[in-house]
Structures
1.
Amino acid sequence: MATYEELQRMPMSDLRAEFRSGRYIGHTAAMGAGLLQANLAILPEADAIDFFRFCQRNPKPCPLVGVSDTGDPLMRTLGDIDIRTDVPSYNVYRDGELTEQVPDLKDLWRDDLVAFALGCSFTFERALAEAGLPLRHVEQNKIVSMYKTSIPLVPAGKFGGGTVCSMRPFSPENAERAARISRQFPQAHGAPLHIGDPAKIGVSDIDKPDWGDVTEFRSNEIPVFWACGVTPQNALLRARPTLCITHTPGSMLITDVPEDAEVTVLAPAA
Amino acid sequence: MATYEELQRMPMSDLRAEFRSGRYIGHTAAMGAGLLQANLAILPEADAIDFFRFCQRNPKPCPLVGVSDTGDPLMRTLGDIDIRTDVPSYNVYRDGELTEQVPDLKDLWRDDLVAFALGCSFTFERALAEAGLPLRHVEQNKIVSMYKTSIPLVPAGKFGGGTVCSMRPFSPENAERAARISRQFPQAHGAPLHIGDPAKIGVSDIDKPDWGDVTEFRSNEIPVFWACGVTPQNALLRARPTLCITHTPGSMLITDVPEDAEVTVLAPAA
């Protein structure tokens, strides 16, 4: 059994073999350096076109980076990916209720399922860190603060609800830099949705996040809110599809797509 | 009847009233300054999810900027748009053959139709012009040269084929600037697919475009190839859906979305 530190340093092919075999079922933070990580949502085709529209209409919380053919577990545009096995751990929801947590989907995959991969914040967080912008929750080994907000989503069919934001504290100057850098990653939530005043987006108490840990603010720091991948998770639960399979939070799909790629599609062989 | 020059200067609400009434059925170049223009493809829902996947997988030739609900002619995320009337002229294809050219879809709209809006090159061309990069075909009042290329598309269901590129000549320095500027417009084909050698992308004679006019090259100029909106048009014809409705070439959908917006979706009222 590889240690977490060994997994962090593994080349992607070895790392994927660990996931594929079921030997590792934990989180994927800081693994697969330079590669795009993604949230996963698998739905029956009957719900797929509305969820597709929901993502197209809400590209900041739901940046689509790949969609499988109906019934095909291979997500070829994202690399050598078998979506039945290549995520460390999966959550299975039936009628909106979590019923199982499983290490693979070998027994659950069906001919009518469509898999959606959505970009996640790891991508822009890595870019911020490389630009020398400190991430408090990373420094303190905490989970980023996340909040329900009043920022409306554009509905599509049964999918809708409110936008969930993650929040990171920065000095005003660093907030501007962080906004400029993250805008370059539309596949990973893009620019912040709001900077400065939590009340303006319906957050009444910054010290009471709806998910994650409380964030420590230092003098002169202001909150910077980004659209968060919990948004589509919430929209899925709220819609209560007969079956919905997601990654287990933190345990993401690591793709073969470079995270600074202009488009999140690997070109086919010419 | 407004003149072309009057139409170019009209505010969008008046301009759309001209289109909506059927009084103007011509092209939309240089109209609706600062607003995103789009290619249009309307398909029965049975073909829609595969076309949706086709666009997701080929974002440079097919940058999706809006998708209607099934049967709903109002494209709310793009503004005050009734897709049955708000494009100056429509082409109707049945089983892959052009059968009609009509000024509205009042008699053709059906409950199972889905409308897709795809970004177009007008957006990045305006940005290039504003940056002082001369566009030969605009200066000479010609149609840009377009070529079938060997750059493969990622197929989805019955949709596939090859990438069509438009080509604009620049000095090597201006080519690099044009690449940098256009990369900022993922909703409008993004960065060039190729710069320099037509043979590398399967174009054997630069003086024989497959569509549009021949381009005059001046000393020291090299060809710069961008993915082109003719690509999805071709893929649609090739797939031969029972019904497909597009804009008439040059006669685009002008949206209410600013063409420099980070996302091509107008926020709903909070």
2.
Amino acid sequence: MYKIANPRSIAFFGASNHITAMGTNLLLSLQAAGFEGPVYPIHYKEDRVLGLEAYRDVLDLPEIPDVAVMVLPTRMVNSTLEACGRKGIRKVVIVSGGFKEVGGEGIVLERELVEIARRYGIRVLGPNCLGVANLHRHLNTTFIPYEGPAGFIGLASQSGSFVTQLFDYLARLGLGFSTAFSVGNEADIDLVDAMEYLALCPHTRVIALYIEGIRRGRAFVETARSIVPHKPVVALYVGGSETGRQAGFSHTGALAGPDDLYEGMFRQSGIIRARSVTELFDFCWALGSLPLPKGRRVVIQTHSGGPGAAAADACGRSGLELPALSDDTVEKLTPFVPHTGSVSNPVDLTFTKNPNDFYWSIPGILIQEERADVLLIYFLTPTQVVKRALEQMGVPPEQVSDQAQKLMDEQCGAIARLVRTSGKPLVGYTFRGPDDPSIRGLMDRGVPVFQGPERAARAIAALVKHAERRDAPEGDCHVKGAFGGATERPRRDGDGV
Amino acid sequence: MYKIANPRSIAFFGASNHITAMGTNLLLSLQAAGFEGPVYPIHYKEDRVLGLEAYRDVLDLPEIPDVAVMVLPTRMVNSTLEACGRKGIRKVVIVSGGFKEVGGEGIVLERELVEIARRYGIRVLGPNCLGVANLHRHLNTTFIPYEGPAGFIGLASQSGSFVTQLFDYLARLGLGFSTAFSVGNEADIDLVDAMEYLALCPHTRVIALYIEGIRRGRAFVETARSIVPHKPVVALYVGGSETGRQAGFSHTGALAGPDDLYEGMFRQSGIIRARSVTELFDFCWALGSLPLPKGRRVVIQTHSGGPGAAAADACGRSGLELPALSDDTVEKLTPFVPHTGSVSNPVDLTFTKNPNDFYWSIPGILIQEERADVLLIYFLTPTQVVKRALEQMGVPPEQVSDQAQKLMDEQCGAIARLVRTSGKPLVGYTFRGPDDPSIRGLMDRGVPVFQGPERAARAIAALVKHAERRDAPEGDCHVKGAFGGATERPRRDGDGV
């Protein structure tokens, strides 16, 4: 698996100089990512493809590339795989579709593909996938150029789209993938293999799984159970409803199982289950950024009653508790809370004469509250308001922007320091956009700030759940029923179809 | 109620030339909104406040203003209200807190406040509120400057924050409030009054309610029932969990009831219930923008299997159905779908040689599918990819940006036209940000595009539910238990405390 995510050289089939070819787009993405090793396009008549020297035949290549990527018409795939085998290439990413997922003839073709791969000892990612993106290695074989930084989320996905089409989504949150695998039809390399790789990958702090149907149930559970104690795993399963099952089936030919079977499997493995793509990455964000809480008791700090009440309600619905504050905390807080505010939980300040109290004194007191395990803070201040205040305080107009930025940087820095020094998780929520400087400043410093209290509460609940499961995964490893009991990798020709 | 949302002139208590005073911030917001009528600051010693001529006493004002706004220390409110009454002012917004919501002495003060108001026939909004924002009238009495356009969402909120702190949130979606009321402690004007106003307001296409606890249950249900047949109402209730109830109580002193009581009340009224702030405005977005569907059958159009499967699953979980396509539709679609794609539902194109098919031919066919009531489309194309395609097609570099914008404008225009001409709802989902030009172009043309399939599915379910309830609200108007049976407005001194 290592070479497929960290190749030194790549043979590329299916790119041309025409933008209408999908392969061309994939090679452009690879170039845009800044891949540093040699790339060898194979083309039957062009001498150069996208500025690179092209070869008529894979056998003509000056070296044996670590990996071949194929974006060819279905009918050409198996013969090309055969040629790769003869050349000595042992890792192949097959992007082309038209195999098991279309049924009929496609099933026969995929069986043939697997036989060729076995004969040559080739490990295949795909077919019907978008390959792999390892941004720490400037590798991106997918359709869409990578935007944003390399990050700490490792992804193994039965959907290629969820690899490529979330680059931008994650970048807006200041997040990114460490390595992301699109496993496609899983003719050979599957979710379990990808998960094993990510468990060992030093850039990966949390593993995300997008699942339409699991083929090797027992191996999946055993692998996950061995990973969870040292790295959290979050899974989104979309095959649980009838409509989702049918759609997944026509997508990758995977056979989905009843929702409660998967629920049980996740629970046994210690995997955190997400119910949407949003949750999948919210949970990864919290789990990859924050220390784990010792329990489920949350203290809420807010400037506003409504967002405080909504957060309290959201915490309650997510199974979290809001303890009463200790006398000690109440005493320390009192000087900072006006009489219109509330020193219960949520701590509702309503208004602070000195805005800095909200970033230094008050969270500093609350994070030490021994009755609470997590501090949840509502962040609301628009840059506009900060600037307005500075203007009114007599700051010269030309200095207002700089001073506002400086002030907000200091405020965000103070909050981030609290997380580092306290060892307790601190989570933010807001209705401001992620590009508001006061929010961006927190996120860039590793403090997750979620859109709305519900997302924050569910992310905290995921932290709590992971802390509990890590220490005591439920029950033993029993996976029966639809998955069979074999730990051996079964023959998978037509499996599940 | 009309004058309080549409005043021609305002007396303003509590603003000074010091930014640390909350009142100053509110007056600055009012000025920033561009309020066109006269504003009279009352100040005990300043001659001018924020550039406006100030008056020592309300009795000195040259006219009787339509509305007075008070942002004064608690102890000064009642005597000032008395003075307003003597002046002849009949609408007062009391922003000041420290009344019923703090208990004890505050309860006594609020009772006194109500008595003064009755004596003079004054209608009071608040206390402990942020007043009203009517952007069609450039009116904003709240703490935070209004950002973004005036819109079609009317809000009545028991939280002031949810009025002010969502301006920016809505603006990012291209949405805005028509008029938004923060009702605070509801000493006089309450949710029901605000709802009645919004029902008649011609700028309001949908009513949003943020609820911590309802005082006049019967009146609430009757009013909502009379509104729903001609205008949708969406409610978020945060008092349903134990934690939410306690937080709401300390916020406005409202008594929350068991969750199922509220659930029943919403159902009887034909109100759509939202479970988060995000849902509240997602539902309003869909209900205010789209024609109502005839049923719950959805057809999904996607470029990608994973997002398609996730959308199918989300639809299933939201109680929507995915019908099989009719033979007629399959026949018309076939020329546009490559062999790797799927002409079942979701329609998964995987790849289109001509990207315009995705915006013209294919949705044009699908929206005519008689077996479906709603068309749900996955939008993914980043501007970068469009530009890359144009570059490769030989468009001169200096024209690429303009041509990309033009192409995307045409594509977005084609989709928006489909909604207008078909009379069927068309909803989008994406993982791109709302600022991506291809997404922004759709939203600006009135096509809701949600972040992720789950939000889209739930918004469609809200459309379906509203269509069903509008035609047949469940059962008769029975509201018993905690709310009593009186339709008369009860005396509310200390109610619910």
3.
Amino acid sequence: MSNMKTEPEMDWSQLFASRTALMTPSALRELLKVTSRAEVISFAGGLPAAELFPVPRFKSALAAVLDQHGGKSLQYSITEGLPELRDWIALRFSTPRLRIAHENVLITSGAQQALSLLGRILFEKGDRVIVENPTYLALLSAWRPTGVEFMPALCDARGLRVEKCRPLMKRKPKAIYCVPNFQNPLGATMSLPRRKKLAALARAHSMAIIEDNPYGELRYSGRALPNLLELDAPERPGSDFSSRVIYAGTFSKVLAPGLRVGWVIASKPVIEKLALAKQAADLQTSTLNQYLALELVRQGFLEDFIPVLRRHYGQRRDAMLEALDRYFPKSARWTKPDGGVFLWVTLPPGADSGHLLEAALNEGVAFVPGGEFHLNGEGKNTMRLNFSNMPPARIEEGIKKLGGLLRRGVNSIS
Amino acid sequence: MSNMKTEPEMDWSQLFASRTALMTPSALRELLKVTSRAEVISFAGGLPAAELFPVPRFKSALAAVLDQHGGKSLQYSITEGLPELRDWIALRFSTPRLRIAHENVLITSGAQQALSLLGRILFEKGDRVIVENPTYLALLSAWRPTGVEFMPALCDARGLRVEKCRPLMKRKPKAIYCVPNFQNPLGATMSLPRRKKLAALARAHSMAIIEDNPYGELRYSGRALPNLLELDAPERPGSDFSSRVIYAGTFSKVLAPGLRVGWVIASKPVIEKLALAKQAADLQTSTLNQYLALELVRQGFLEDFIPVLRRHYGQRRDAMLEALDRYFPKSARWTKPDGGVFLWVTLPPGADSGHLLEAALNEGVAFVPGGEFHLNGEGKNTMRLNFSNMPPARIEEGIKKLGGLLRRGVNSIS
């Protein structure tokens, strides 16, 4: 063949499945790539504070894993997860009313995989699922390609407005997805009466509840509330697990996200199908990282580390709330979360947080415009602010800059 | 509410998507769960020899990662993978003719995830894909739920019979999936003329080639052959990467499978869609394990460890071939692989390796009946034997037992 001959380029767009057209890069994601630069004050991601990770404890726990388990910790292991880790999770979430066995637990590669696998086993074109509006962005990207229709449900400062979900029942949603504690992006927490109402509503309509609880342990004020998983437990104490709640948990926020270890707690038929989907998806979650998580939790790592996180993140939340009070225009409102890593600002109607972001990036401050988290084009005047990943002084500095932009009329609302 | 009241059980089967019916547990998988018991001589899985893992090197590499990168190695990182690891892979696979940039590389949670994500972006109902028959079992489970139709292609001792694929082109398959080196399950290697023919066939029909190469480095005899990725490189040296080959690689067989670190090399449009699918699937592959793999390869781990694997696995292959010669009936035939971890036995027509397995498990020996790997109910008289996971003496013992069962007429073929 001659060097002059030019091969026709492969036209990949002809080869992609139609669902792949639903996978599109967000312009925002490109815009926010700058946030990885150290000089940027980023309120954008949901990142934990890496400077708080007790690196020497991870190092010694890894050494202990390799000393104790040797090559086994580097070898293939079973799809469902390490039996000892499944047992530990089953025990941690069991209550007198709720008896969880290790067969009710599947280890996943982070909670994101749990959600993605649930989408695969549950949804197809013609199905409907209720989601909080606004909701977790990567949930939408995980489930959209299944063809499921999202039914947005209203939220306020006490979380999902369950009463407003009743009319949606006519269209027979298969499931409702919610983040009851310190919701992403609102920072709102669902009240106990609403949790009970939601459990009853799901029971009355044979609807599954997908409870996503990545932030539950990160509470800085107020009293912990029971999980939906627990509220839906059978009336007879001691009976086997049987629940319409599918619970997604993760070590990402209380241990370290770079390990990618999460879990699902659910009825056996759900776990069985999820395990088949997981085997096809990635065979199993990293053996080494599962042993590492197990070693750390057995050493009492969570009892030591969660209070550290609560103290620091609580201070950061307070620093952000104080700075908002001081620097933001009076016309803006924001949530006062009891925990988690996000709060939510609402600017006056007509303001555009997308414009604000452009100006803010020029001053080295990043956040996520709230419209992104909405299903129906609403929320252009809203914004999500993360407070876990920056120390208090930089939080104040960043909020001051944002407030200055708002007061100088970037959104004509000063 | 009274304790006497029994809640109706949730009927999960009503809630599953129709594709979930295609996810069914294999009876075989249950049967083979016994193989994790230490006393069982297992030729069943595709497991590396964990006793060969240089555990102290992993331990010191992990310590080095944590010393060097601290909390960053435990933090979230970008979906596409660590830039340094993508660069390393790009460089390792680049040749004078084939210039791979890091934008052509995506890090995945093992090669299984690479295959699963490819299924998601490429296939839907109405699409067709050619696969070797027999082929890799977990490929079928990963792609079946997409609705794609599998078109089986004939193989022999020199791999895929490319000539036999020509008539299949009329039905316009989107892609062909193949394992050119030491194929799973046959152990066969595709000859160079066939590789060239396959590249030309794909080019002529605008078909993608999905080249899965987990075992390529594990060669014990014969000369290494160029990858399809390289054979399909543009004619003009130095031009940018543009290929109809999508290459799936993994550290599982040359480093350790428990890390779950693999990769895809492909044209940018494919990598971009795969990255979106990956973000929805699990956000990213473990940061810690990517840093660990990077640290090890930079230390020259592969240059030390691959020769160790070749020596040991080569001895195990030889031990199995010798034992087969000695103990199996003359009517049986088997492949003589130049590498990898499997060989393939064909018993006379009418024999049933499923029956043999039942008898073998009673004697503490496991393998996988070959029918499992076939698309069309063929291969009941075949069996796949793994030789990497048992030392030579146990290989001889196990083959002797299987041979004894065959000679005693378990399959009436003695």
4.
Amino acid sequence: MRDVSIVGIGQIPVGEHWEKSLRIMGAVAVLAALEDAHLERPDALYVGNMLSGQLSQQENLGALIADHCGLRGIEALKVEAACASGAAALRTAYIAVAGGVHDIVVACGVEKMTDTLADETTAALVSAADAIYEGEQGLSFVALNALLMQRYMHEFGYRREDFAGFAINAHRNAAGNPCAMFRKPITAEAFSRAKMIAEPVSLLDSSGIADGAAAVVVASTEFARAHGLEPVRIAASAVATDSVALHDREDPLALQAAHASAERAYAQAGLGPGDLDFFELHDAFTIMAALSLEAAGFARRGEGARLAKEGEITLQGRIPISTMGGLKARGHPVGATGLYQVAEAVLQLRGKAGANQLQGCRAGMTQNIGGSGAVVVTHILERVS
Amino acid sequence: MRDVSIVGIGQIPVGEHWEKSLRIMGAVAVLAALEDAHLERPDALYVGNMLSGQLSQQENLGALIADHCGLRGIEALKVEAACASGAAALRTAYIAVAGGVHDIVVACGVEKMTDTLADETTAALVSAADAIYEGEQGLSFVALNALLMQRYMHEFGYRREDFAGFAINAHRNAAGNPCAMFRKPITAEAFSRAKMIAEPVSLLDSSGIADGAAAVVVASTEFARAHGLEPVRIAASAVATDSVALHDREDPLALQAAHASAERAYAQAGLGPGDLDFFELHDAFTIMAALSLEAAGFARRGEGARLAKEGEITLQGRIPISTMGGLKARGHPVGATGLYQVAEAVLQLRGKAGANQLQGCRAGMTQNIGGSGAVVVTHILERVS
């Protein structure tokens, strides 16, 4: 198999794009990524998206976005893995380039969530959970995360204020990211006073509903070098799954798929948690950040939240997370999120992360989660020296 | 790249499965394919599906079906390309195995369309078209095909009775397929009298709404031989796209993506239309069958319908199509259809097509179309001698 790299990235600001259709958002991100890579026509386009059928009455996004980029004719498909759809599109692109089926593939993630009523969007999001055992029983995604957070607090003796560090770090970092949705730092007091959504999950534990699109261009590392491009190497690409329904797991607080996906990625890259300079994790809710840190080997069971309390996750900490705002504050346009994470990781590894630049960083991990940990896509990215 | 084969197939009868959920239909097909291949645990599962979010409020089908097959943990994703989602899942599996990223991958197509009101299903299907320029303007899929058929008749001087051969052939062949939905032959008189849906498309020009699931196991040909399996070789796998909206095409009667997809497949396989013993084409409507025959090089422009009139498409004809009933009579559970086509082609090439067996057949082509020709996935399958 060939060594694979990312040679271009594109992203539009996350927010409420009432003036831009789904297809235009996707096309803008794809064209920006191609321009960044100094390339014009990829062999294929894989689009990560979860909700376009339900919220925009539009499927067939692969062909649609390809055409609106001026790429009519190329291979184009949509990939769906709930909120992990973006990274799943990259996974598919990686497979095609690593195996030599294609030389240049664009992975694009796109989601439009704000043109519909919040109720409709919330209802559509539940389709990432088990429709029969969870969705039809009235559970929303906030409710599922509230169950997890409640159990975590009960089991390990945390109070809800102990999660404040995740939100504060995310908002602080978002302030330095021109593509972030919530660019305003928050205080511990604001976190304490935040409106309760589903006890103990408050507004400031939760990522917001948003529109967005991000894209990356994938090529062989050899191609990148031959064409004078600046590659960021994909040292690992891995997917693992778990039950979709929470009740079906032996231990709901152990994100088995996040663990398995990270372990596969570590084995593939020949690296461990100690070798990583940052971790773009899936902080759709603060509890997910805590559980992800544990599943990926950065903290022991029950100690993920401690990393936030002790400042270990900031840009200056032991393992910086959400370095450009994370899902919490950059925003979480679900099918696009995985590629925002990757684009941000590429910025860090290129040394182009602006005010949020980590010094001397050489390797980072991104982890995109679909459902309550049902499908997890992990990538490890490395600077090519 | 490695030579890739299909080593197992599974399908459930197409019909109204009110007693089976989406996940169970998918799991039954996957387990049947694995049993057929004498294998237990693939490396990955790619699920082709279009409508589960809109009609079953269920996304995340990769993880969900993997878990319900006892395959919790493996890599699993959903692939969507409108009505070509099934073949798109096979395309993704092919890429992973050809490139050596995975050794064994299951591609499964599944769709549940009959648990909802016909209006809801019809509305959801329009999401394969362009939501802004077609869907929101009130065009249904039947209406889009009626525009094409009307134009074709006008341009080339056909009457609607000239399309009868497509439906008669499909129903005749479905009678010999235990998995087909409409196993009753029809007459030219019945075709003439059929209820009009959207002039000139009648009920007997159209494939029906249905539930179904089909799956195939993909492995390297070398693996198949080493394990004493009976491989059917994937000699070509290709995808091409066109504009999603019909009005955006220079010539709406030329299915450019079907043409490009077939040409890519011919080049990859080193074969041409004259080398193929059958063609499982996408006869969602009779007009699509005529246009597909032209796009794939079996007839000149305006002469596709003539093949049906002259009996060239029957089991005894020059280029048999819909040999197990096609979309028209086996049924068209949209995201599953592409894998029914492939499973049926494998039966023909194994010599296991029962009453419908083509004598001495060595190579066949399947072509799965998403939207009105917006995305087209073509596979050429060959007996391994």
